Structures are given as structure tokens and as C-alpha cells.
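Ligand: zinc ion. Inputs:
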Amino acid sequence: MTLKDRLCRVVMTLAVTLLFSASAAAGAPQQKTQAPGYYRWMLGEFEVTVLSDGTFQMDAGKVLTNITPKELDAALARSFLKEPVETSVNGFLINTGAKLVLIDTGTGTLFGPTLGKLPSNLKASGYRPEQVDEIYITHMHDDHVGGLSADGKRVFPNAIVRAAQQEGDFWLSKAHMDAAPQDSKDAFQSAMNMLNPYVSAGKFKPFDGDTELVPGIRAVATPGHTAGHTVYVVESKGQKLILWGDLMHIAAVQFADPAVTIQYDTDSGRAAMQRKKVFADAAEKRCWVGGAHLSFPGIGHLRAAGSGYAFVPANYGAQP
Ligand SMILES: [Zn+2]
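Predicted complex:
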């Protein structure tokens, strides 16, 4: 072998080694997905499964009211957040042993691809949409009723849908839609598109005021965010969970200062009053809380802190 041959072989070996180590350094491809979005735990004898519908980006500065930009920046910084705030949309599936009850249904296809995942997460959690017996709606904004129907058909074919009478009277009324400003007519149309398949099948049954709907789950009227906004109180074996729908939207801001409101409130003053009332009650009685827009899985406790509250997320349970 000539010197030239040997040099050539050394160069080749070096090149192959470099190529090999370069591809090894690139490592495994990043997967960039989360685990299926459900979280299961037991409340007394009831099995609760939180179902993620996904997240969306909320421009807190554009939608929050009764707060200055400076106060908002400080509140977000205190929680290590920046605009826009990634915000969860959660539904809650409760198996009481006798009934399978879903509270709120997510957005369906109304909010784009980062949302609308509640049905796939329900399936991943081991249930099927046709098993759901009852659906309780906190209010008829499209991120809560958007998952009820698809292409004019009921997604939950065997479920009875229940919501406050005032909520149905408001959102399912053509007269109210006609009278509404142009930019809010879509909200009425979405509510109608989602609810009407149940109405025409005789499967929409509104209730009036505070009502026990199945043993262990009762509706409590909290009008303010909308005319018929309702929280659902779930109780089993002395344990209590308050599912509060849209009593709050941005945890980083509204726990510390429940007086901060949002432009989606029909009656901001009343919405703030309901928020303060439910927060005070939950903190005092040390009961579980669950929020539609609390960071998934959105369950925990409240404790009084200064003039507001601190949220203590649930400790992870490997065994529900
Ligand atoms: Zn909402």
C-alpha cells in the first residue's frame, strides 16, 4: 500500500466516523405531543374524569376589564406568564355508579385545531359518547356547548341535555338573536346549532333555579357571566366538588383579585359578585373546585390569601 493509499484510507475512516457521530448527535426525533388529555380521580364513591378539550391563546389585555395594563403585567409576571395566555378548556365526566354525567362539552369544531379534543379524550379515557346519560351545561357560550352536535347531529345520541331555563330562553330565542348587535349574532346561532338537535329530539330539559338533577349532583344558579349561568355541586360520601364553569377565566389574575372581570360577562358586576361568593364558600368549607378554564386538569382547592385567594392544584394521584 502506498503512502497515498494509506492517507486516503485514514481520511475515509475519519469521514465515516464523523458522519456516524454527527447522526448520533442528532438523537431521536422530538415527538411534540402530550399524553391523552384526561385525569381521573375519586370523589367519595363518584369517579370524576376531567376531559381536556385543548387550549387556546387568550389576549388577557384585550378581554379583561376592571384592571389596568400595569396591574395585568404584574399579575402575569407573578405567575411567570406572558401574553397571550394559553388557556385550557375542560369538561368533567362524572360516573355516579348509576349515571354517566358530562358537564360542558368543549368547543367542537368552532375554535380550530388546538381545541375540539374532548370526544377523543373521552374515548381515550375508556368511555364512548353513546354511554353518556346526561349533559349539564354551565352556560351556552360556544366553548361549552360547541361539542354537543356535529353536522346537525347529536354527538351524544342517548343523552338528555339540561341547562337553566333562563339560559335556554336567552340563547335559543330568535327574537333575542334578531335584536342582538351584528357581532354577537353568531353566538346565538352557534348555541341554536348545538342545542336544537336535542330540542327537536325531545332531549333538552331545562330546569328552573337550584335543582338536584341526579342524586349527588345539583345545579346552583349563578347568573352574571350569562343570564342563566349555573355551577354544579357534586357530593359523595361527605366530599364536595364545585364545578364553576366560567366564574373565572384567568387564574393568574382573578384568584388574587376576584373583582377583575371579562368582556364576555353579560353583567360584569353580578359575575364578580358570584365569583367572590363561590370563592369565599369554597375556601371556607375547604371543598374541591373545578374550572372550565383552569389549567388542565383544573381541579384543586382555594385558600384565602391577602385580599384574594390562592389556588392549590390537586396533588397528582397515580391511583384514582
Ligand atoms: Zn368559557
